[in-house]
Amino acid sequence: MWSEDVRDRPAIAFRPAKGVALECFGPLPPLAGGPPESGRWVGPSPRPVAGDRTMEVWAQPAAAPRRGTAVLVPPWKVPGLDTMSGYARLLGRAGLDVWTLVPPRHLGRAAPGTRSGEGFVSPNLPDVRAAIEQLVLEIRALAAHAGARGGEVVLVGLSLGALAAALAATGPERIDRVALLAPPADVAAVFAQTPIGRRYLRLAERAGAPMAEAPVLEEMLLPFRPDRRPRPAGQVLIAAGSHDQIALHDGALRLADAWGVEPRVYAAGHLTLLFASGALRRDLAAFLAEPIATTAARA
Q1: Helix (H, G, I), strand (E, B), or coil: what is residue 68?
Q2: 104-152, pLDDT tens digit by residue?
Q3: Fold that domain 36-290 belongs to in CATH
Q4: Are 74 and 155 within 8 A, CB to CB?
Q5: Where are the domains of the chain?
Q6: How far is it, in rounded angstroms, from Cα 182 to Cα 104?
Q7: d(C-alpha 167, C-alpha 173), whole Å
């Protein structure tokens, strides 16, 4: 993500969206099948869109006595799932089967001729809503599959994947633990206050259809704020970098306050926190090891 602001991109016109609730919290469609014990799984997306009608998951079994299943949600523009291997190993060592979800419009799900993640974020707010809704519904579907298998249901999301995991955790499915690592919990602030966000403002201006003024844009993006959703019933870890200039840690702190969670704040930037912080990995491992009173009854 560090190089995103130096790439030449075509102009993208701003398209407004109403600031109404996201349409990803209703009943799930009937579930069939589910990821295997190990390997790639492709199944129908609960919110298919043109050119991206199937969800893709990579499964690996627990590396210790099994306690449940973790759904691992990568960050925006993840270049390959090998970048998630450290988290997958950590979760596996905690006794969790790991299902790593390929987000919509990423990797093999990207449109032909486009880079991983292109189009997931843009000044076209209806498209952004559709992408987030699809991702949230896919996380919820995997959580439902995981719950049916027995044991704990764990969500771990990184960056934009953490935003989607936060929203999914407020749905009706049982979630025992959710770890949100550097979530961009205030998308309007990201647009207004970060180089990546300001680049999209410039692209809209170049297209002759500039973004709405800040107060109007903030209202349109309110449905993306998980702090306006109820706190999940399970245990919650929220991690933020005090030097994060991509997701911005203020939104994560407001989310923690709204949900009554003590945030974990690290002296790190965005990518450093996600991929080079031993302290975060240790805290995540300790979080996963904390006892949950209801786990034995659900196994």
Answers
A1: strand
A2: 999 999 988 888 898 899 999 999 999 999 999 999 999 999 999 999 9
A3: Rossmann fold (3.40.50)
A4: no
A5: 36-290
A6: 20
A7: 12
